[in-house]
Amino acid sequence: MKKIILCGRSECGKTTLRQALKGGKIQYEKTQYINHYDVVIDTPGEYAETSSLAHALALYSYEADVVGLVISATEPYSLYPPAIAPQATRPVIGIVTKADHPCANVPLAIEWLKLTGADPIFVTSSFKGEGIWAILNYLKEPGDMLPWETKEDAEKEREIISTKFEVSDFGNKDYHWI
To answer: Are the C-beta atoms of 124 and 97 separated by less than 8 Å?
Structure first.
């Protein structure tokens, strides 16, 4: 499989997406440093949010075949400037996470990623498995074996061990931005 580096601000869902791509259980983890997994490089959001650390993302992107710009459908603003994708020496894809969240604004997140030049753009829900198969197929190279045999297996709901928020509270509380 092509190796992907996931870049985005803190709490946009990079680590949860990595867990969903690997087929594992979903468990809240705060990424403290750049982690190399089989085909995923998971990065802390602070690297994208802090100019003194941002250069490390550029360096680590050379170890990946694909750059994934991750943005949550619940974010009130975009971290990425327009037309940033042409700056990369790798293909840049866009990934919208948390599409199933009650406060998600998927069309706005897609528009922000289009402005960066990312192509294609994938819409995902790591908890429900939506969009995972499409990303895996994009990253798949001839001869690769995927963690699942069918799209239905890849896109079934995940077992959630822990999250930062109670999943049962979604829809029961007001999550609007202040």
So the answer is: yes
Q: Which two tokens stand for residue 68?
A: 């994934």
Structure tokens at 41: 């490089």
Q: Say whether the peptide bond before residue 107 is cis (omega within 30 degrees of 0).
A: no
Distances (CA, A) of 116 to 25, 85, 111, 113, 125: 31, 6, 9, 5, 21
**Cβ-based burial of 149 (10 A; exposed 0-12, middle 13-18, buried ≥19):** exposed
Residue whose token pair is 């499409």 = 134
Structure token digits, residue 1: 């499989």
* Of the options 3.40.30.10, 3.40.50.2300, 3.40.50.300, 3.40.50.1000, the CATH number for the domain spanning 4-169: 3.40.50.300
Instruction: Report the alpha-carbon distance of residue 84 to residue 94 in Å, rounded.
Output: 12
CA atoms within 13 A on the CB side of 158: 27
The DSSP secondary-structure symbol of 170 reads T
Provide the pairing of β-strand 26-27 with 4-7: unpaired
Q: pTM to 2 decimals?
A: 0.86
Q: Which amino acid is residue 87, in one-letter code?
A: Q
Cβ–Cβ contacts within 10 Å for residue 35, how many?
15
Please tell me the predicted confidence (pLDDT) of residue 164.
59
pLDDT at 68: 95
The list of the chain residues with pLDDT below 50 reads 167-168, 170-178
